[in-house]
From TrEMBL:
Name of the protein this chain belongs to: Bifunctional lysine-specific demethylase and histidyl-hydroxylase
Names of the cofactor(s): Fe(2+)
UniProt xrefs under Pfam families: JmjC_2 (PF08007), WHD_ROXA (PF20514)
Superkingdom of origin: Eukaryota
Family recorded in the similarity comment: Belongs to the ROX family. MINA53 subfamily.
Cofactor binding note of this UniProt entry: Binds 1 Fe(2+) ion per subunit.
Entry EC number(s): 1.14.11.-
Keywords for the protein's UniProt record, in alphabetical order: Dioxygenase, Iron, Metal-binding, Nucleus, Oxidoreductase, Phosphoprotein, Ribosome biogenesis, Transcription, Transcription regulation
Species of provenance: Pongo abelii
Reactions the enzyme catalyzes: L-histidyl-[protein] + 2-oxoglutarate + O2 = (3S)-3-hydroxy-L-histidyl-[protein] + succinate + CO2; L-histidyl-[ribosomal protein uL15] + 2-oxoglutarate + O2 = (3S)-3-hydroxy-L-histidyl-[ribosomal protein uL15] + succinate + CO2
Length: 383
């Protein structure tokens, strides 16, 4: 039975304490993720934490550290990406900026060491060894099918785009300064060890990425080492920095992120235009012109503010009585940019028609039902 690890400290000023963590003992047999369904994949990813516990206690609230003593899982994590994979990727054509970044944290600031054009492995390795630079690979699921497999299932589970970046940092170095992100972050430690420090957010559930100065963030509230097979989650807005300690091998981790621009505020902005459009077809007051020179005034008039607040109340009342909330752009963006269904091989069997042609009485079964989204569109005859 997994046991909860006790925090190293009593909350006094002697130093930071580790965030909530779980220790998992090796089960003896092979340990891998469960791809039977999106739900089973996520459950196995955060095991032994229960899904209900995760969303009740951690999601968008506080960090979660899962440390595992499981050689099989560590081996599986290590297979997701290695430093040596860069050599074959560079031979296929990798470009600075688009595919890979080279950087290092110097005096609290990010120093970018990118060259121009195509990235060559020997140059990347030279910067890595001699300049102690971190290599960041964008969206590695384009090249590593197992990451594609994981992220495609997570997109089905969250109903939101899921991206990733691989960070490879040499010993005695740090790639990025303290910062916070605008995404929910899951970090899988693949190779080596990395020293992490987390700080209280200055902007909880932040909507933008931002670098924070050391003097502004104070002391870390959580400090720990990630080892192969470990997983770390923290909400958007969590200030963090990480380094590979001197004397150790290089560190490789993959950051899997989701829920960018996926808040209630974003959804409100996305749907309110449709609400106004539909309401204006029935309410002549919404079709009436605004006062002359209203747009030329520095401050809104009392009359304009009162009218706007009244219209918003009307829209709220209208929304209470409708079953159809039309998404303008968020749903389209998700459908257009999400990963395709995972398929081993070249995917030809999915794109090449086969079998008998369907008839009117044929029964249709959806092969990838998690990739089907029904959308209600306005009646063109009534617009």
């Amino acid at each position: 039975m997994p046991k909860k690890a006790k925090p190293a400290g009593s909350g006094k000023e002697e130093g930071p304490v580790p965030c909530k963590q779980m220790k998992v003992e090796a089960a003896g047999g092979p340990s891998a993720l469960n791809f039977d369904s999106p739900s089973s994949l996520f459950e196995s990813l955060i095991s032994p934490i229960k899904t209900e516990t995760f969303f009740k206690e951690f999601w968008e609230q506080k960090p979660l550290l899962i440390q595992r003593d499981d050689p099989a899982l560590a081996t599986y994590y290590g297979s997701l990406f290695k430093l040596t994979d860069l050599k074959s990727l560079c031979s296929r054509g990798m470009y600075y900026g688009r595919d890979v970044n080279v950087c290092r944290c110097v005096n609290g600031k990010k120093k970018v060491l990118n060259k121009d054009g195509k990235a060559h492995f020997l140059q990347l390795r030279k910067d890595f060894d001699q300049k102690r630079a971190t290599i960041q690979l964008h969206q590695p699921q384009r090249f590593k099918d197992e990451l594609w497999r994981i992220q495609e299932k997570l997109e089905c589970y969250f109903g939101s785009l899921v991206g990733s970046n691989v960070y490879i940092t040499p010993a005695g170095s740090q790639g990025l300064p303290p910062h916070y992100d605008d995404v929910e972050v899951f970090i899988l430690q693949l190779e080596g060890e990395k020293h992490w420090r987390l700080y209280h957010p200055t902007v909880p559930l932040a909507r933008e990425y931002s670098v924070e100065a050391e003097e502004r963030i104070g002391r870390p509230v959580h400090e720990f080492m990630l080892k192969p097979g470990d997983l770390l989650y923290f909400p958007r807005g969590t200030i963090h920095q990480a380094d590979t300690p001197a004397g150790l091998a290089h560190s490789t981790h993959v950051t899997i992120s989701t829920y960018q621009n996926n808040s209630w505020g974003d959804f409100l902005l996305d749907t309110i235009s449709g609400l106004v459009f539909d309401a204006a077809k029935e309410d002549v007051e919404l079709r009436a012109g605004i006062p002359r020179q209203l747009l030329l005034q520095v401050e809104s008039t009392t009359v304009a503010t009162r009218r706007l607040s009244g219209f918003l109340r009307t829209l709220a009342d209208r929304l209470e009585g409708t079953k159809e909330v039309l998404s303008s752009d968020m749903k389209k963006d998700f459908i257009m940019h999400r990963l395709p269904p995972y398929s081993a091989g070249d995917g030809a069997e999915l794109s090449t028609p086969g079998g008998k042609l369907p008839r009117l009485d044929s029964v249709v079964r959806l092969q990838f039902k998690d990739h089907i989204v029904l959308t209600v569109l306005p009646d063109q005859d009534q617009s």
